[in-house]
Write a structure and sequence with these properties.
Elements lengths: L2 H21 L11 H11 L13 H11 L8 H12 L8
Helix pairs in contact: 2-4, 3-4
Length: 97
């Protein structure tokens, strides 16, 4: 085995060991949503200053309500966050009639 082949074999072994270590936590992982996701999404939905459309003080209430009422068979998606932004966080003057 040449030195370059030996070095490559060592690199591959190190990558494999890292993969095995990272995989140990596989069953302990979760997906989570937080207030920052509401802020990010509000910014995506509004062309301009999202704070004129959404009341960020209500993001925590919307997040809590979303968690309490979500359907585990469907999960939580960006569409879900859109719904809670509109229902809980939209300023009255921004709501469509």
């Amino acid at each position: 085995m040449t030195d370059s082949n030996y070095t490559r074999a060592e690199e591959l072994l190190a990558e494999l060991q890292k993969f095995v270590e990272d995989s140990k936590d596989y069953y302990n992982r979760s997906v989570s949503w937080n207030i920052a996701d509401f802020e990010w999404r509000a910014n995506q939905l509004v062309d301009g200053d999202w704070k004129k459309v959404y009341n960020e003080e209500e993001f925590g209430t919307a997040l809590y309500s979303m968690m309490e009422n979500h359907d585990a068979t469907v999960g939580i998606t960006w569409d879900t966050i859109d719904h809670y932004l509109d229902e809980y966080c939209k300023h009255e003057n921004s709501k469509k009639t």
